[in-house]
Amino acid sequence: MKPDDPLLRILACPLDKGPLHLLPATATAAAAAAAGKDGTAAVDGAGEALYNPRLRRRYPIIDGIPQLLPSSGEQVSDEEHETLLASVSEAHMTAGNMAEEHVAEDHTSGNDTRRPGTPGATT
Predict the structure, then answer these.
(1) Residue 87 class from Cβ within 10 Å (0-12 exposed, 13-18 middle, 19+ buried)?
(2) Which helix (H) or strand (E) holds 66?
(3) Are 13 and 52 a contacting pair, CB within 8 Å?
(4) Which one-letter DSSP state was computed for residue 5?
(5) H or E segment at 65?
(6) Is residue 46 within 8 Å of residue 66, measured between CB atoms?
(7) Which of 3, 23, 40, 78 is the most buried (most CB within 10 A)?
(8) Residue 39: predicted pLDDT
(9) Count of alpha carbons within 13 Å of 4, Cβ hemisphere only?
(10) Cα-based distances in Å from 31 to 24, 46, 85, 86, 102
(11) Taking Cα atoms as reference points, which of 105, 6, 19, 92 lies closest to residue 55?
């Protein structure tokens, strides 16, 4: 699953109906390692997952399909929670910086990409 997948905007935690954060495989493996787990099973952090930081629950993504049944979620430890929060914060900051750079490029390039005849376009 990609971070810009439109499906992520509508997926919600089955328990509190709040938004979920996409965790790449590297983040889930790092969180499992921080908690002292081996990370061999999909739920234990070997693959992508969706994370609800409010309830500290992680839902695995298996073969590209989010497993969003309440029974498929796993409660994470305090150590894993801290690692996952850092990963989520880093992902949001990176995405925010990329969006800011894109907007800055559009405004500073001086190139007007709008079609002639549209409001605000220069000819």
Answers:
(1) buried
(2) strand 65-66
(3) yes
(4) -
(5) strand 65-66
(6) no
(7) 23
(8) 47
(9) 5
(10) 11, 10, 10, 10, 31
(11) 19
Distance CA 113, CA 121 (A): 8
Amino acid at 116: P
Structure tokens at 37: 């787990």
Transcribe 13-58 into DSSP letters: -TTT--B-EEE-HHHHHHHHHHTT----SIIIIIS-EEEETTTTEE
Q: Tens digit of pLDDT for each residue in 63-121?
A: 989 999 999 999 999 999 999 999 888 877 776 555 454 444 444 445 555 555 555 55
pLDDT at 83: 92
Look at the chain and count its residues. 123
The secondary structure of residue 64, as a DSSP letter, is T
